[in-house]
Amino acid sequence: MKAISSMATRHVLADLGSAAVAAGLPEVELESVGGVDAAQRVADGEQLDLVFLAQDALQRLADAGHVEAESLTPLMLSQVAVAVPSGSDEPASHGGGYAFPDAAGLRAALQQAGRIGYSTGPSGVALVKMIEGWGLGEELGDRMVRARPGIPVARSLAEGEVDLGFQQLSELVGQTGVRILGVLPPDSAIDTVFGGAVATASSDPAAAREVLRFLASDAAAPILAAHSFAPVAS
């Protein structure tokens, strides 16, 4: 069974897939690429069974008939966190808490930062939109550095390309060369719901639906937590 996902969920989906196999379900061969590239490949009709992307991207694919609309299933919630270079080989951890007390603190940090790294995915789009809504788009200008597709912001931080980085917490935890300040405060939080859907090009849609049901079951909760994702509230 073939599946495609964005880079943000590759590790958690690998562990969820292993758990599914242990439960007697088919093995899923997962390929993870940039979210934009993944959506385009699905739209191009590539033979795939399952698609894992941000929920809004899945909805667009469903509206265009590329995934089964009735199969859309929210799987996990991801929060955007903030990190800085650490100069350490120790894997980054998140002790909980917010990077800044409120949106005002976040705005001040952005204005004081040298180069600001953000991702190509939905979290990066949301960050740029928020910055523009605050009227800071022109002020920050070319200090905003968008990561290349498939390249994590953590790498840009570790290699000194940016001074302040924004990416989903799950993508920052465990990376070396970065220190996680915390997630964005509630009044400026950027949360992304990632989900799964059965591709209309699937060679075995019934089996794909079974796997998807397992990934949305209570059995997935401890695996999500281990990768710094949260379950989606029902």
Automatic annotation (TrEMBL):
Domain of life where this protein originates: Bacteria
SUPFAM superfamilies, alphabetized: Periplasmic binding protein-like II
Cited Pfam families: SBP_bac_11 (PF13531)
InterPro entries, per the entry: ModA/WtpA
Listed PANTHER family: BLR4797 PROTEIN, MOLYBDATE-BINDING PERIPLASMIC PROTEIN
Name of the protein this chain belongs to: Substrate-binding domain-containing protein
Lineage of the organism: Bacteria, Bacillati, Actinomycetota, Actinomycetes, Micrococcales
